[in-house]
Structures are given as structure tokens and as C-alpha cells.
């Protein structure tokens, strides 16, 4: 028995020396209770091996963030950076305005003409007469102002809505009231750019109507009136700034707020809920065509809903008028005179034009935002080393 015990002790001492060979400290051989017991590997059957692989795969997936969480969507808070949001909004605005600007010009001219000086009977009539008198590019009067300022305007609108939705959401969910608050914040932020942009655009768009009215309807022109030259955006800006300061560019600010805030309150929640109907599964994003159709439907609905305020805003911001046309001192004065002289139907002037403008404009915007064009562009920039 002693010889057997002696051999076991020698093996234990030898094992202890191997365990402590790589240690920096000196220690004696571990006792049998301290020594780790290493069981020999048992051969696995093919079924056990595949089950183990599945378990390891499940553990890896549990720690991986789904790709959808990184995809920017217009329907909710996104993980995209602020520069990407600004690029998305800018690109969408440029594409949209280029496509629908002639319809917007027709909308402005239809809203500005009053009963005593009706030159156009419909959108198509307005566009045909514009091409005849001003040429094809006459339909793009004021487009340069819009293309210049629509980038910051759309960028602010979409990025602000995304910002407010992100900070108002709780566990990634938003109530309808909070969705409306986010839209209200977006609409309030955008008027910083929208008001001067609309002010300049309306003067340029309506200049052709005034000129055509002088030629085709001379009875509306006061005797001895000199026909003014077509102004440029810079000339209008300098004149307004010289006469009224920065406030001159913000004429109609109250009416713009009354239009854009309700528009955003209607548009963004309606878009988000329509877009959610087309999602692939509970967590998956909606296809791009669903985002496009949702943007078109929500945009046209909101546009028609706020069209009466848009008519008031257009009338207030127009500086040049025919001699027989009314002038307005404010929102309430404008409402009173329109009701008295033209009737309630005048508040729907240009409504279908506005719906045709806004629907594709916001449909395109949401698709660009959804596809992440800004993220794609930024991916070509060199990344900074940490």
C-alpha cells in the first residue's frame, strides 16, 4: 500500500509543478482538493455537435444589433447623424421642387387673382397662357429662390421632426398627442427659412400674372400707370431690407405659422401611421413604395386642410396688385374682405394644385429619407481615426 501511495504522491507533485510552472509566484504543489480535475473530452455524436453549433449561433445573434435599427426611417426616431438628415432633406427638396414647380406657380397665380380680374380659369389654362406669353421657362419663375432655400427648409423640417420624435418617444413608442407635438415643433422651426423664401418666390411668380393682366385686361390698369420691369430676387431683397429691415422679409410670418404648424401636426402623425400599416412584420421597416404612397396621401390631405390659410398668406405676401384688387392690413382684414367680396369658396382657390404639389414633394422626400441617401453620400468621406 505504501508503494502505491508513494507513486500517487509523486504524480501529484509532478502535476503541481506543471500547473505552477507559468506562474510568477512560488508556491507549493496544490492539494488534491485545490487541484483542478480535467475530464477527458468525450466524442460527440453528429446530432450533439449540430445542437451545440445552434446554441453558439443563438448566443452570437443575441448580442448582435439588428440591421433595421440602423436604417433611418421617416416614420420614427432614426440612428442617422444630423449631417445625414440635412443631406436627405436637401436632396429631397431639390428633386421635388424641380418636378412640381410649374404647378406651384399656377397655384400662386390662381390664389392671387380676384373676382374682378380673373385671368385664369384653371391650372391647365394658367400653364398654357404662361407658356404662350412667357415661354417654357416662364413656368419656372422664382424657381432659383426655391431651389436655393428649399434645401435648408426641408432639412430643418425633417430633421426637427425626427429630433422631437426621438426626445418625446418612450421605449421607442409615441402617442398620437406626442406625434402631433413633434409635428408642431417641426412646423415652428421651419418658418425661419420658409417665410422669406415664400415672400420672394410669390413676388417672382406673380409678376407674370400682373404683366399678362396689363396686356389682356387693360381695363384693370389705372390710367398713366408705368409698367414695371420684372424684378430679381436680389432686387426685391435689397428693397425690402432698405425700407423695412429684416422684418420686410418676414411679412406674413403669422399666416405662415398658421399654415405650417397645422400642416405638420396633420402630416407627420398621419404619415407615420400610414407607413406603419405597410411594415414587414412587427419590427421590420416598410418598403420604399409604401413610404412614397404614405407621404403622398398624408401630404395631399394636410395640404387641402390648410389651403384657406395658404390663400390668406399668399394674398398678404403679394406686394404688387392690379388697380382694382383689394389690399389687406392683416389676417383678420384679409378674411373679412375675401368673405365679403369673393365668398367662402375663394378660400379653396388652388387647393387641387397645392395637393398636386405637396403629394409628390413629400412622397419623394420620405423615400429619400427612407433610403438613406445622406448616409450613402457620407460613406465616401474619409473617416477620422479615433
From TrEMBL:
Named from the GO MF annotations, one term is: L-aspartate transmembrane transporter activity
Keyword annotations for this protein, in alphabetical order, are: Membrane, Mitochondrion, Mitochondrion inner membrane, Repeat, Transmembrane, Transmembrane helix, Transport
Coiled coil ranges (UniProt) are none
Annotated catalysed reactions: L-glutamate(in) + H(+)(in) = L-glutamate(out) + H(+)(out)
Q: Which GO terms describe its biological process?
A: malate-aspartate shuttle
Q: Say which family it is in.
A: Belongs to the mitochondrial carrier (TC 2.A.29) family.
The function of this protein is: Mitochondrial glutamate/H(+) symporter. Responsible for the transport of glutamate from the cytosol into the mitochondrial matrix with the concomitant import of a proton. Plays a role in the control of glucose-stimulated insulin secretion.
Membrane topology per the entry is: Multi-pass membrane protein
- Which InterPro entries did the record assign? MCP, MCP_dom_sf, MCP_transmembrane, Mito_Solute_Carrier
What residue intervals traverse the membrane? 355-378
* Amino acid composition bias (Basic and acidic residues), ranges on this chain: 1-12
> Which parts of the sequence are annotated with region: Disordered?
1-59
Q: Where in the cell is it found?
A: Mitochondrion inner membrane
Name this protein carries in UniProt: Mitochondrial glutamate carrier 1
Q: Please provide, in alphabetical order, the Gene Ontology terms of the cellular component aspect for this entry.
A: mitochondrial inner membrane
Query: Which Pfam families does the annotation name?
Result: Mito_carr
Q: Where are the Solcar repeats?
A: 80-167, 174-277, 286-375
Amino acid at each position: 500500500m505504501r508503494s502505491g501511495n508513494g507513486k500517487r504522491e509523486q504524480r501529484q507533485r509532478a502535476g503541481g509543478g506543471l500547473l505552477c510552472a507559468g506562474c510568477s509566484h512560488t508556491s507549493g504543489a496544490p492539494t488534491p482538493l485545490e487541484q483542478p480535475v480535467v475530464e477527458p473530452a468525450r466524442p460527440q455524436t453528429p446530432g450533439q455537435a449540430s445542437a451545440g453549433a445552434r446554441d453558439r449561433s443563438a448566443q452570437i445573434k443575441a448580442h448582435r444589433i439588428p440591421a433595421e435599427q440602423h436604417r433611418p426611417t421617416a416614420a420614427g426616431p432614426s440612428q442617422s447623424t444630423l449631417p445625414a438628415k440635412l443631406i436627405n432633406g436637401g436632396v429631397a427638396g431639390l428633386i421635388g421642387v424641380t418636378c412640381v414647380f410649374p404647378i406651384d406657380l399656377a397655384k400662386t397665380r390662381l390664389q392671387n387673382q380676384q373676382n374682378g380680374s380673373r385671368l385664369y380659369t384653371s391650372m391647365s389654362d394658367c400653364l398654357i397662357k404662361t407658356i404662350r406669353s412667357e415661354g417654357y421657362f416662364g413656368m419656372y419663375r422664382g424657381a432659383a429662390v426655391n431651389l436655393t432655400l428649399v434645401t435648408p427648409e426641408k432639412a430643418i423640417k425633417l430633421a426637427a421632426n425626427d429630433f422631437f420624435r426621438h426626445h418625446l418617444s418612450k421605449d421607442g413608442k409615441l402617442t398620437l398627442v406626442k406625434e402631433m407635438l413633434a409635428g408642431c415643433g417641426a412646423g415652428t422651426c421651419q418658418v425661419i427659412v420658409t417665410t422669406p423664401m415664400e415672400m420672394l418666390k410669390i413676388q417672382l411668380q406673380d409678376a407674370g400674372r400682373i404683366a399678362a393682366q396689363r396686356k389682356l385686361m387693360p381695363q384693370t390698369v389705372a390710367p398713366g400707370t408705368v409698367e414695371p420691369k420684372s424684378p430679381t430676387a436680389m432686387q426685391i431683397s435689397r428693397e425690402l431690407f432698405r425700407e423695412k429691415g429684416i422684418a420686410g422679409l418676414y411679412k406674413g410670418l403669422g399666416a405662415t405659422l398658421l399654415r405650417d404648424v397645422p400642416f405638420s401636426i396633420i402630416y407627420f402623425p398621419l404619415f407615420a401611421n400610414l407607413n406603419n400599416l405597410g411594415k414587414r412584420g412587427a419590427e421590420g421597416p416598410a418598403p420604399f413604395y409604401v413610404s412614397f404612397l404614405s407621404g403622398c396621401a398624408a401630404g395631399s390631405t394636410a395640404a387641402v386642410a390648410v389651403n384657406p390659410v395658404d390663400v390668406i398668406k399668399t394674398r398678404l405676401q403679394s406686394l404688387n396688385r392690379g388697380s382694382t384688387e383689394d389690399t389687406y392690413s392683416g389676417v383678420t382684414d384679409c378674411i373679412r374682405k375675401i368673405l365679403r367680396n369673393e365668398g367662402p369658396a375663394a378660400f379653396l382657390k388652388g387647393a387641387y394644385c397645392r395637393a398636386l404639389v405637396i403629394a409628390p414633394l413629400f412622397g419623394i422626400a420620405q423615400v429619400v429619407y427612407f433610403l438613406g441617401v445622406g448616409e450613402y453620400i457620407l460613406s465616401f468621406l474619409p473617416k477620422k481615426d479615433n
